[in-house]
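Record 1 of the preview.
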Amino acid sequence: MSNSETLVNFEGAITFGTIEMLLNRLRCNALFSELPKPARKRLYGIFVESIDNIFKYAVKGERGKKRPYPHPRISVVKSGEKFVVKSGNMVRNEDVGDLIFKMERVNQLDVEALKTLYEQVINKESSLSDTGAGLGLITMAMRTDHDIIFRFSEIDSLFSFFEYEIILKG
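->
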């Protein structure tokens, strides 16, 4: 990214203390403070949802001598007139198919269809096997005019690294 400036860049375990530190880091950044209120709220909301997804759903691999597992990461970068939120964390390979389905679904829908899907999902009974309803993904998709860019990188037979990127107008 040319002409870019990093507001937040973090790699490591996400704890309650880390969450507070990351939110303060974004709120105290001059570029963030200068944004018009609607754009600031959209960016902050996406950042919060991204941290929450890592906190709730990132799996921790067993650290072995053979291959260390990557830490979760999150960043906010201003690139030109846009802001880019990037997030990544480890997921179980058995959950990749469901995540791909949810990501592709939110990318295919317009704002009105996303609102309808949000209402359907929030009113649905949850089961013990649910790995998350996807409300955070739906909410993030409603806050951007772009598709959410995502990818999975297989780490080993058990885990993959899931990354996504959300672009917002500044």
